[in-house]
Amino acid sequence: MKYLAKVFVALLLAVTLALGGVQGRANAGPIPIPDISIDVNKTIDQIIGLISTSQDFALMIANQTPETLQRVGSYNYTSNWPLGDIDPLTASGQEWKENGLGYFSFASNYAIGNTGRNFQFGASWPPVVSRKINVCARNESGNKPAELCWDKMSNSNDKTVTNAGFQSTATLRKKGNTVLWFYQVK
User: Fold this and answer.
1) Is residue 76's pLDDT more than 80?
2) At a CB cut-off of 8 Å and minimum separation 6, what does 117 contact?
3) Rounded Cα gap, residues 71 and 155, in angstroms
4) Against a cut of 0.90, is the pTM above it?
5) What is the CA radius of gyration of the chain?
């Protein structure tokens, strides 16, 4: 009976990883996972430990306003939001590589200068299921608006929100070997 349970769990893990590589990965393609040899005595953690992959990521914000985008909060579920303030009429970004089944999931809250307007940006790369992106508009400082935006992430579709004359768009794309979360504020 233990043997059947182990085989079932290994099969379930393989199906989950396979579906995670296909479902909800807008414009980015599947994550290639090489074939690995296993035996029936391996646990799930041992099987996952055999997987060796790496993926390049980038996160970029284009500030097309005359105001500084001031980071006034963040929500770091796993890993830390990589960008600080974004100067007017500039784009700022961060590139990094995750190895193995590395993952991150976080959000930020940016004030548009002293206008009283804010946008929140969310990004997530889980090891299973689908990557996500979000943009929200709550005119509050602090970490809570970022957490609420993070919590509402549901897919990798492009999103656009407006906030009293300002507009922000969030897109998720693959450029070469890099998966890019891109946010535009104008």
Assistant:
1) yes
2) 111, 137, 139, 163, 164, 166
3) 24
4) no
5) 19
